[in-house]
Structures are given as structure tokens and as C-alpha cells.
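TA notes. Do not distribute before section.
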Amino acid sequence: MKEKISLSEYRSLAYSLRPIKPLGVCCSNVLMEPVQVEPLEGRNENQVKRTCIVKCPECNRMYTSKWD
């Protein structure tokens, strides 16, 4: 995974990406690799339904996904 980013940086990137279901696939049924997880920044981990940004290792397309 990459360096930690701020919540605003994460949201800026995540809102421009298409969503994909957890364990979803892109090219030729390759599992996605998480590259960023939504930062908590002072929020309660139990109350926030976090997302993550995943990347296809074959075509390098990125998507958002639930982090659970």
C-alpha cells in the first residue's frame, strides 16, 4: 500500500472512480489489490463504513470498494 493520505485527498480520488463489489474482478478474473484505505482521521472505526481504492494488477484501472 502507498503512503498515508488525508481524508480529503482520499475522497478527491475515490469520488472520481467507479465502484466495484468486494472481491470483484476486472481483467481476466484477477483479484484487485488494495492501494489505499479510507483514513479515519478521528472518526470511530466502528461507526464508519470504510471504503478502499483497489487496482487491477493487469490493466492498472482503479475502483472504489467496501473495506470489509
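Switch to the second chain here.
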Amino acid sequence: MKGKAISLFIRLLVCSGLVALGCGGSGPAKSTGTAVGGHPTAKTKGDISDLLTGYSQTVLFYSFTGYGPRLLTHGDTLLDPTLGLWYKIQLGSSLLTEKLYQDQARTIPAGTLQYLTNDAAQTLGGNIAVTLGKYAGLVGVYLQSLQSVGQTGTLGFSVPNVGTTDFQFNFESNNMGGYFGKMTNGVELLDGYLQTELVTNAVDGSITTSTTDSNGYVSSFTWSSTFIGTGTISGKDPGLPATIDWTAEGTGLITFADKSTASVTDWVVGK
């Protein structure tokens, strides 16, 4: 997946306008809207749905981290609200295994995260597979290296009928197992849509994100540690700029430039 990640980030640079070339799949970065402001069109809502689908992939990162706050829960059976699955972490001498289940009693297996650990090199990495639930069929690879003051690494995964996402992160750690720092994400949906996202994780657990995409949109979102947040979306399509409020489940409300609104359910904008 490493070669594919490099290719994706090159395409993201092109589509965000940093390189003066056309973008494959979805065409050059442009917006076909006639004016800023006004009433949103079906295209505006569809393009925002693409943007939010990219964000829905971003929150998955926090379900797959190895060394970090999640590790402190080993031995417990807990619910991951993003995946909608229960998980239990087991620590071995050279293996960190996280089993996913559809039920709290752990009778219905729903996937596995299995990371080899090397204490001498202070590295961790391995494969991710989700077999049940909203993200059934997700497969990916997670790699992480501990540094003197934090951690760096990559995560790449694909989701059936959605697309692929790649992360590069550089975090510092605190004494409670938490982390803060920067992350760059690239999303490519099956329809050719591309999104690049810069993420800042704060010490208090809050997250700020900014994106550019192949539809010519620019967005800025602020998330709490539980992924509840607000954001702004700008572009040249009718109905923009717009604001949005949402929950961790991707449910919320968009307010467009003309003060009309649209609901968001599971990261998709209502008609």
C-alpha cells in the first residue's frame, strides 16, 4: 500500500492546485456553481456529501491506533462507537491483538487488529481486518515507531464501495498515554473524488482539520475528543459558504448561505 499512498498524495497535490496539471478520475479541480451564496443545488449537496465521506474515514484512524490511549484499556471489553463494534485488547510478549465483536458477550467475531511489537526497535505494525458492521470488508496496514518524545507512523486502509485512505502522523505523547501533534490524510473515493486533509490533535483531545478537494472546496472543522463538532465549507457553488454541526455518528445539520438547511445522516446530506 506504500506505493499507492505515494501515488495518491501526488494526485492530491495536483487536485489542490499546487501543481498545474489535470486530475485523473474526477477531472481538474473546479466548481461548476454559478455564484457564491444563493440556494444550494443538488450538485452542491452531493459535493458536500463527498467531503463528509472523507471526514468519516478520518475518524476511523482513532479506532486503529496501537501505542496510545486505547492501549490503556487492555483486558476490558469496550464499545467503539465509530465502528459500532465491541473490542478487547490482549498484550503478548511480541504481539498486540485486538479482537472485534458484534456483541458485548464476545460471541460474534467481527474482525481483528494484529500488530507485531519490537521492544528493542520500539516499533509496532501489522494488519487490520473488519468483517462485520458498518465497515465490513475494511482491510489495512498500520505501522508505528516510538520516538523519544512521541511517535510517527502510517496507516492505510480501503473500505468496499467507498475508497481508500492513507495517513501520515507525527505525535508527541503525554504521561497519560495521550498524544498531540500533526497528521496528513489523503482520501480517494471510488468515483474519483480526492481530498487532502491536515489534522492537528491538541493536548486536551480536541481536533482541528482543514481540507482542500477535487471539487474546489475548502473546509475547516473543529472536533471535540468525542468527535462532536462544527465546521465551515467554502466554494464557488450555490449555497456556499455553509456551516455544519454534527455528532460522532455523522448526524447533523447544514446551514447554507441563504439560511436554508439540510440534515446530515450517516455523513450524507439529505435531499
